[in-house]
Amino acid sequence: MVRIAGIDYGTVRIGVAISDENQIIAGAHGVMPSKKSYEETANALLELLTPYRLGAIVLGMPYKLSGKASFMGDEVTHFAELLKKKTSIPIIFWDERLTSIQAERSLKESGMTRKKRSKIIDSVAAVILLQNYLDALSWKRDANLPDLS
């Protein structure tokens, strides 16, 4: 069995989530600070993921509510291209619209202070992103639909 990683890419912090081996549940793996360059960031991320046997990396694509790619989408695309040169693990773009808002709302409702929320929000957003992907993957399997990659 292989796991799937979920990545909420940011220029300051990167949220990381990992699925269980059955690819049903997403769990937080933490927040990694972005490095000075894309290359350093990609290397650090892949090193962080090394202990896991991954079948895919799901990378959040920040679309605008209109469905068009945002400015940050160019950053994510560039980062994905660099990752693809460094690993044979498939990179899958997944719509991350509203994941940060969902994460913020969930943490706020739990009574967490703003300072504490700011330290983990990217990881929670990565969990939401990955769980959305895993749920769609499960639905596709159950409905016998074509691959989502």
Q: Largest sheet at a glance?
A: 5 strands, mixed
Query: Looking at this structure, what is the CATH superfamily?
Result: YqgF/RNase H-like domain
**Overall geometry:** globular
CATH topology: Nucleotidyltransferase, domain 5
Q: Please tell me how large the radius of gyration is.
A: 15 Å
Please give the number of β-strands: 5
Model regions low in confidence, pLDDT < 50 over at least 5 residues: none
- CATH second-level architecture: 2-Layer Sandwich
The residue fraction in helices comes out at 40-55%
Q: Whole-number average pLDDT?
A: 86
User: CATH first level: which class?
Assistant: Alpha Beta
**Helix-strand pattern:** EEEHEHEHH
The strand order across the widest sheet is: 3-2-1-4-5
Distance between the termini: 18 Å
Integer count of domains: 1
Q: What percent strand?
A: 15-25%
Structural class of the helix and strand makeup?
Answer: alpha/beta
Tally of DSSP helical segments: 4
